Amino acid sequence: MIAFIGSVFSPYYHWSGRKNPLNHVAFNVALYGPRGHAWAMTERGTRHLRREGRALEIGGSSICFDGSELVLAFDEVFLPWPGQRWWPERMQGEIRLAPSILADQAYRLDPSGRHVWQPVVPQGRVTVSSEMLPNGGWSGQGYHDMNYGSRPLEKDFEGWDWARGATEDGRAILVYDAVLADKSRNRFGLLYAEDEVREIELPARQRLARGFWGVGGGVACDEAADANLCGVYEDSPFYRRSLVKTEIAGERLVMMHETLDCRRLANPLVRLMLPFRMPRRA
Description:
This is Carotenoid 1,2-hydratase. This protein is mainly beta. It has helices at 11-15, 153-156, 262-265, 268-273; strands spanning 2-5, 25-33, 36-44, 49-52, 55-58, 61-65, 70-78, 89-101, 107-108, 115-129, 137-149, 157-166, 172-180, 185-193, 196-200, 205-207, 218-220, 228-235, 239-248, 251-261, 280-281.
Protein backbone atom coordinates (compact mmCIF):
# COMPACT_ATOMS: atom_id res chain seq x y z
CA MET A 1 0.00 0.00 0.00
CA ILE A 2 1.57 3.31 -1.11
CA ALA A 3 0.29 6.84 -0.51
CA PHE A 4 1.26 9.39 -3.17
CA ILE A 5 1.18 13.19 -3.00
CA GLY A 6 2.35 14.48 -6.36
CA SER A 7 2.63 10.94 -7.72
CA VAL A 8 5.96 10.36 -9.48
CA PHE A 9 4.26 7.86 -11.80
CA SER A 10 1.20 9.95 -12.61
CA PRO A 11 0.83 10.92 -16.28
CA TYR A 12 -1.72 13.56 -15.22
CA TYR A 13 0.79 15.18 -12.87
CA HIS A 14 3.40 15.13 -15.64
CA TRP A 15 1.02 16.61 -18.24
CA SER A 16 -0.03 19.36 -15.78
CA GLY A 17 3.56 20.56 -15.52
CA ARG A 18 3.88 19.27 -11.93
CA LYS A 19 2.63 22.64 -10.60
CA ASN A 20 0.28 21.44 -7.86
CA PRO A 21 1.21 18.12 -6.20
CA LEU A 22 -1.77 18.33 -3.82
CA ASN A 23 -4.08 17.99 -6.83
CA HIS A 24 -2.50 14.64 -7.79
CA VAL A 25 -2.88 12.23 -4.88
CA ALA A 26 -3.53 8.51 -4.73
CA PHE A 27 -3.49 5.39 -2.59
CA ASN A 28 -2.08 2.41 -4.44
CA VAL A 29 -3.31 -0.88 -2.97
CA ALA A 30 -1.97 -4.16 -4.36
CA LEU A 31 -3.04 -7.56 -3.01
CA TYR A 32 -1.46 -10.86 -4.09
CA GLY A 33 -2.79 -14.27 -3.18
CA PRO A 34 -4.19 -17.64 -4.24
CA ARG A 35 -7.27 -16.02 -5.81
CA GLY A 36 -5.11 -13.83 -8.03
CA HIS A 37 -3.86 -10.28 -7.87
CA ALA A 38 -5.88 -7.13 -7.18
CA TRP A 39 -4.76 -3.60 -8.04
CA ALA A 40 -6.21 -0.18 -7.25
CA MET A 41 -4.61 3.21 -7.93
CA THR A 42 -7.21 5.90 -8.46
CA GLU A 43 -5.77 9.39 -8.63
CA ARG A 44 -7.81 12.12 -6.93
CA GLY A 45 -7.79 15.90 -6.64
CA THR A 46 -7.22 18.35 -3.80
CA ARG A 47 -10.68 18.10 -2.27
CA HIS A 48 -10.13 14.39 -1.57
CA LEU A 49 -6.96 15.04 0.49
CA ARG A 50 -6.94 15.50 4.26
CA ARG A 51 -3.78 15.41 6.35
CA GLU A 52 -2.46 16.29 9.78
CA GLY A 53 0.54 15.41 11.93
CA ARG A 54 -0.25 11.74 12.47
CA ALA A 55 -2.76 10.98 9.75
CA LEU A 56 -3.23 11.12 5.99
CA GLU A 57 -6.53 10.48 4.19
CA ILE A 58 -7.07 10.26 0.43
CA GLY A 59 -10.59 9.46 -0.68
CA GLY A 60 -11.82 6.52 1.40
CA SER A 61 -8.35 5.26 2.34
CA SER A 62 -6.11 6.45 5.15
CA ILE A 63 -2.97 5.91 7.20
CA CYS A 64 -2.48 7.03 10.80
CA PHE A 65 -0.26 6.33 13.79
CA ASP A 66 -2.22 5.51 16.94
CA GLY A 67 0.76 5.72 19.30
CA SER A 68 1.83 2.09 18.98
CA GLU A 69 0.86 0.90 15.50
CA LEU A 70 0.48 2.21 11.99
CA VAL A 71 -3.13 1.68 10.93
CA LEU A 72 -3.91 1.69 7.22
CA ALA A 73 -7.49 1.43 6.00
CA PHE A 74 -8.39 1.00 2.35
CA ASP A 75 -11.67 1.45 0.52
CA GLU A 76 -10.89 1.39 -3.18
CA VAL A 77 -12.24 0.21 -6.52
CA PHE A 78 -9.98 -2.49 -7.90
CA LEU A 79 -9.48 -2.65 -11.65
CA PRO A 80 -10.62 -5.47 -13.91
CA TRP A 81 -7.97 -7.99 -14.88
CA PRO A 82 -8.39 -10.76 -17.50
CA GLY A 83 -8.90 -14.15 -15.92
CA GLN A 84 -9.47 -12.76 -12.42
CA ARG A 85 -12.26 -10.15 -12.52
CA TRP A 86 -14.07 -8.75 -15.53
CA TRP A 87 -15.58 -5.70 -13.82
CA PRO A 88 -14.31 -3.12 -11.33
CA GLU A 89 -14.83 -4.31 -7.77
CA ARG A 90 -14.93 -2.37 -4.52
CA MET A 91 -12.71 -3.78 -1.77
CA GLN A 92 -12.29 -2.71 1.83
CA GLY A 93 -9.87 -3.73 4.55
CA GLU A 94 -7.41 -2.76 7.24
CA ILE A 95 -3.66 -3.21 7.69
CA ARG A 96 -2.00 -2.85 11.09
CA LEU A 97 1.79 -2.63 11.39
CA ALA A 98 3.38 -3.08 14.82
CA PRO A 99 7.05 -1.99 14.66
CA SER A 100 9.74 -4.22 16.12
CA ILE A 101 12.44 -1.84 14.81
CA LEU A 102 11.97 1.92 14.34
CA ALA A 103 14.36 4.13 12.37
CA ASP A 104 14.70 7.90 11.94
CA GLN A 105 17.66 8.30 9.57
CA ALA A 106 17.13 9.44 5.96
CA TYR A 107 19.46 8.75 3.03
CA ARG A 108 20.25 10.72 -0.11
CA LEU A 109 19.73 8.76 -3.30
CA ASP A 110 21.63 11.33 -5.37
CA PRO A 111 24.61 13.58 -4.52
CA SER A 112 22.54 16.78 -4.56
CA GLY A 113 19.94 15.45 -2.14
CA ARG A 114 17.04 16.04 -4.52
CA HIS A 115 15.74 12.54 -3.78
CA VAL A 116 15.60 11.14 -0.26
CA TRP A 117 14.60 7.76 1.16
CA GLN A 118 13.85 6.96 4.78
CA PRO A 119 13.10 3.53 6.23
CA VAL A 120 10.65 4.15 9.07
CA VAL A 121 9.82 0.57 10.16
CA PRO A 122 12.55 -1.71 8.77
CA GLN A 123 10.96 -4.68 10.57
CA GLY A 124 7.55 -5.22 12.10
CA ARG A 125 4.54 -7.48 12.38
CA VAL A 126 1.74 -6.82 9.93
CA THR A 127 -1.88 -7.99 10.12
CA VAL A 128 -4.14 -7.66 7.09
CA SER A 129 -7.92 -7.94 7.49
CA SER A 130 -10.45 -7.99 4.66
CA GLU A 131 -13.53 -9.99 3.78
CA MET A 132 -12.14 -10.20 0.25
CA LEU A 133 -9.13 -12.27 1.40
CA PRO A 134 -9.04 -16.03 2.13
CA ASN A 135 -9.82 -16.71 5.82
CA GLY A 136 -10.39 -12.98 6.29
CA GLY A 137 -6.73 -12.01 6.04
CA TRP A 138 -3.25 -12.98 7.18
CA SER A 139 -0.34 -11.99 9.40
CA GLY A 140 3.38 -11.85 8.69
CA GLN A 141 6.41 -9.60 8.27
CA GLY A 142 5.87 -5.90 7.68
CA TYR A 143 7.87 -2.88 6.50
CA HIS A 144 7.26 0.84 6.04
CA ASP A 145 9.33 3.56 4.38
CA MET A 146 8.93 6.87 2.59
CA ASN A 147 10.49 8.73 -0.33
CA TYR A 148 10.35 12.39 -1.21
CA GLY A 149 11.98 14.53 -3.89
CA SER A 150 12.05 17.88 -5.64
CA ARG A 151 12.51 16.76 -9.26
CA PRO A 152 11.08 14.10 -11.59
CA LEU A 153 12.89 10.78 -11.13
CA GLU A 154 13.72 10.55 -14.82
CA LYS A 155 15.71 13.80 -14.60
CA ASP A 156 18.25 12.31 -12.20
CA PHE A 157 18.15 8.50 -12.56
CA GLU A 158 18.35 5.84 -15.22
CA GLY A 159 16.80 3.48 -12.70
CA TRP A 160 17.35 1.50 -9.54
CA ASP A 161 16.95 -1.80 -7.73
CA TRP A 162 15.64 -1.91 -4.17
CA ALA A 163 15.33 -4.97 -1.92
CA ARG A 164 14.36 -5.75 1.65
CA GLY A 165 14.53 -9.01 3.59
CA ALA A 166 14.74 -10.37 7.14
CA THR A 167 17.34 -12.65 8.68
CA GLU A 168 16.43 -15.69 10.76
CA ASP A 169 17.27 -13.84 13.98
CA GLY A 170 14.93 -10.91 13.24
CA ARG A 171 17.27 -8.33 11.74
CA ALA A 172 16.43 -6.53 8.50
CA ILE A 173 18.66 -6.00 5.46
CA LEU A 174 17.83 -3.24 2.96
CA VAL A 175 19.59 -2.62 -0.35
CA TYR A 176 19.51 0.33 -2.76
CA ASP A 177 21.37 0.13 -6.07
CA ALA A 178 20.73 3.27 -8.14
CA VAL A 179 22.15 4.28 -11.52
CA LEU A 180 22.15 8.05 -11.90
CA ALA A 181 21.58 9.93 -15.13
CA ASP A 182 25.34 10.52 -15.51
CA LYS A 183 25.93 6.70 -15.30
CA SER A 184 27.45 6.90 -11.80
CA ARG A 185 26.12 4.57 -9.09
CA ASN A 186 24.85 5.01 -5.58
CA ARG A 187 24.92 1.55 -4.07
CA PHE A 188 24.58 0.78 -0.37
CA GLY A 189 23.22 -1.78 2.06
CA LEU A 190 21.82 -1.31 5.58
CA LEU A 191 21.58 -3.83 8.40
CA TYR A 192 19.00 -3.04 11.09
CA ALA A 193 18.99 -4.70 14.48
CA GLU A 194 16.82 -3.78 17.45
CA ASP A 195 19.24 -1.16 18.80
CA GLU A 196 21.48 -0.22 15.86
CA VAL A 197 21.78 0.38 12.14
CA ARG A 198 24.98 0.06 10.15
CA GLU A 199 26.03 0.07 6.55
CA ILE A 200 27.25 -3.22 5.12
CA GLU A 201 29.51 -3.92 2.19
CA LEU A 202 27.49 -5.31 -0.68
CA PRO A 203 28.66 -8.18 -2.86
CA ALA A 204 28.50 -7.87 -6.64
CA ARG A 205 25.17 -7.49 -8.38
CA GLN A 206 23.77 -10.56 -10.13
CA ARG A 207 21.38 -10.01 -13.01
CA LEU A 208 17.85 -11.39 -12.85
CA ALA A 209 15.88 -12.81 -15.77
CA ARG A 210 13.89 -10.23 -17.70
CA GLY A 211 10.13 -10.10 -17.47
CA PHE A 212 7.46 -10.02 -20.18
CA TRP A 213 8.04 -6.30 -20.84
CA GLY A 214 11.83 -6.67 -20.79
CA VAL A 215 12.47 -5.17 -17.34
CA GLY A 216 15.29 -7.14 -15.76
CA GLY A 217 17.17 -5.69 -12.83
CA GLY A 218 19.52 -7.39 -10.43
CA VAL A 219 20.29 -7.97 -6.79
CA ALA A 220 23.37 -8.13 -4.58
CA CYS A 221 24.49 -11.73 -4.07
CA ASP A 222 27.57 -13.41 -2.60
CA GLU A 223 29.97 -14.74 -5.22
CA ALA A 224 29.57 -18.38 -4.16
CA ALA A 225 25.76 -18.22 -4.27
CA ASP A 226 23.07 -17.72 -6.91
CA ALA A 227 20.24 -15.21 -6.95
CA ASN A 228 16.87 -16.63 -8.03
CA LEU A 229 13.65 -14.98 -9.06
CA CYS A 230 10.97 -16.98 -7.25
CA GLY A 231 7.82 -14.91 -7.79
CA VAL A 232 6.71 -11.95 -9.90
CA TYR A 233 3.89 -9.75 -8.60
CA GLU A 234 4.00 -6.74 -10.94
CA ASP A 235 5.50 -6.73 -14.42
CA SER A 236 5.03 -3.50 -16.37
CA PRO A 237 6.90 -1.68 -19.17
CA PHE A 238 8.97 0.29 -16.60
CA TYR A 239 8.61 -1.46 -13.23
CA ARG A 240 8.76 -4.92 -11.74
CA ARG A 241 7.99 -6.08 -8.20
CA SER A 242 9.08 -9.60 -7.33
CA LEU A 243 10.29 -12.03 -4.67
CA VAL A 244 13.98 -12.93 -4.88
CA LYS A 245 16.17 -15.47 -3.08
CA THR A 246 19.75 -14.34 -2.55
CA GLU A 247 22.65 -14.42 -0.12
CA ILE A 248 24.35 -11.35 1.38
CA ALA A 249 27.30 -11.65 3.79
CA GLY A 250 26.49 -15.32 4.30
CA GLU A 251 22.83 -14.67 5.16
CA ARG A 252 20.32 -16.53 3.00
CA LEU A 253 17.46 -14.12 2.35
CA VAL A 254 14.06 -14.03 0.71
CA MET A 255 13.71 -10.39 -0.32
CA MET A 256 10.92 -8.24 -1.70
CA HIS A 257 12.56 -6.69 -4.75
CA GLU A 258 11.71 -3.78 -7.03
CA THR A 259 13.26 -2.63 -10.29
CA LEU A 260 12.44 0.79 -11.74
CA ASP A 261 13.52 1.87 -15.24
CA CYS A 262 13.20 5.67 -15.33
CA ARG A 263 14.09 5.89 -19.01
CA ARG A 264 11.07 3.80 -19.88
CA LEU A 265 8.89 5.73 -17.44
CA ALA A 266 9.73 8.90 -19.43
CA ASN A 267 8.71 7.31 -22.73
CA PRO A 268 5.61 9.18 -24.08
CA LEU A 269 4.01 5.90 -25.19
CA VAL A 270 4.34 4.44 -21.68
CA ARG A 271 2.72 7.58 -20.22
CA LEU A 272 -0.23 7.12 -22.58
CA MET A 273 -0.65 3.55 -21.29
CA LEU A 274 -0.66 4.49 -17.61
CA PRO A 275 -4.27 5.79 -17.37
CA PHE A 276 -5.46 2.20 -17.90
CA ARG A 277 -3.77 1.29 -14.60
CA MET A 278 -4.45 4.53 -12.72
CA PRO A 279 -7.68 6.32 -13.64
CA ARG A 280 -8.25 9.85 -12.35
CA ARG A 281 -11.33 10.97 -10.44
CA ALA A 282 -10.65 14.56 -9.42
